[in-house]
Design goal:
This protein is an alpha/beta fold. It is about 40% helix and about 10% strand.
């Protein structure tokens, strides 16, 4: 008799490397055949068909000054469909890792509706410009938050992500992932999350991480990156990545998730700028050519992040790494904050609205205190002109 453990071990598990969905357009005969084969192969596939609701949003987006009743919007959807059967409109997207089949607007209409609430904090022209940008992210703890925020805003045309590590239980204090994803490559998990949010976004995955053998390919293959984001833990990769980014004229951004430190090196505008603002000039960079002990890494890390500007708790924690702590601490709040700040900064860099190198701190302990609290005067009335202006907000 087969034991329960044997049955569990033999249970089918979706391909752990798969991160790209399958697109099926039923107006095309070949795709209709593929859809039938999929449903035969996966009879328990979970189907989500909310297309009419999406079409209703599309109609409203195309007519922003008009207020539709429910009946009027349904009629407008019917007119928009015309003679096209609803099941043939748009695209069906199959996610093999979760066995979900979702009916969506096709890319142009999907992107229009999904980014509608971006405007005009991001104008339509700026959105189109961002769709041509290439962003690279190394390290997917803070990096995951950055990637997802960029994806939410549709702030890139291609995202290249690199991390050799797999998701572990101790990562779940700051990485927003499910318990059933433990053991999967972090890069695959991030690519899947983005595909489930927006399957049309291009994400290129390097599950082997960044190394001397692939760094130039990561930075330039398919077109040079517009921005490199460094969120990795490896001292040697931090240095190597900057040296090669400088060689290729690619700016580097880093967030440390401690006191909201944001670091920017504009090698695209300042090709002779020393890496890490010159903080490493007194250290022997040749040590990165071999494996480093924690004791050897510490001077580099302290020089990179600035001993004097660390939070008190981080200062106390670093000497404990390898003694009472496995590694340096990070909190979800700091990681999430870093994701928002870096995504905002990258958008402005890519649009030519931010050109400086330097360091900035968005330290909530300094910004949000009882001493800094202020409440503006409350107005009970709004003028008729303001009411008209705010009518459709």
């Amino acid at each position: 008799m087969t034991s329960l453990n044997d049955r569990l071990q033999r249970a089918t598990v979706p391909d752990r490397e798969c991160h790209r969905p399958e697109f099926l357009r039923l107006s095309e005969p070949g795709d209709r055949v593929r859809m039938e084969a999929l449903l035969d192969r996966e009879p328990h596939v979970m189907v989500s068909d909310d297309l009419r609701s999406q079409l209703g949003e599309l109609v409203r987006t195309l007519n922003p000054s008009r207020i539709f009743s429910t009946e009027e919007r349904e009629a407008a959807v019917d007119r928009h469909l015309g003679d096209t059967p609803a099941e043939e409109y748009g695209v069906w997207v199959y996610y093999p890792w979760s066995r979900r089949l979702v009916h969506l607007l096709d890319e142009a209409e999907f992107a229009m509706v999904r980014t509608d609430r971006n405007r005009n904090k991001i104008t339509a022209q700026e959105q189109a410009e961002l769709a041509n940008k290439r962003i690279g992210v190394i390290g997917l703890s803070v990096g995951q938050s950055i990637c997802l925020t960029l994806a939410l805003e549709r702030g890139f045309g291609e995202l290249r992500i690199a991390d050799f590590d797999t998701l572990e239980l101790s990562n779940l204090n700051r990485i927003r992932s499910a318990t059933y994803e433990m053991g999967h490559a972090k890069a695959v998990n991030v690519a899947r999350e983005i595909a489930e949010l927006d399957p049309f976004l291009k994400v290129t995955v390097y599950t082997e991480g960044l190394s001397r053998s692939n760094v130039d390919r990561f930075l330039t293959e398919g077109g040079a990156l517009d921005v490199l984001v460094d969120e990795c833990d490896s001292v040697d990769v931090k240095i190597m990545g900057r040296l090669r980014a400088k060689e290729h004229g690619i700016p580097v951004v880093m967030d440390t998730s401690d006191r909201g430190l944001i670091d920017v090196e504009r090698f695209d505008l300042e090709p002779d700028r020393p890496i890490m603002h010159g903080y490493l000039e007194e250290l022997d960079l040749s040590v990165i050519e071999r494996p480093m002990t924690n004791a050897e890494k510490l001077p580099f890390l302290l020089a990179m992040v600035g001993t004097d500007t660390l939070s008190d708790r981080m200062k106390a924690s670093l000497p404990e790494v390898g003694k009472t702590l496995v590694t340096w601490p990070q909190l979800a709040s700091g990681v999430t904050l870093g994701g928002a700040i870096v995504a905002d900064l990258i958008r402005r860099m890519c649009l030519g609205q931010m050109s400086s190198s330097g360091r900035w701190w968005v330290d909530l302990n300094d910004l949000l205190t009882e001493a800094t609290s202020a409440v503006p005067p409350f107005r009970k009335t709004i003028s008729p002109a303001e009411q008209d202006r705010l009518r459709y907000v």
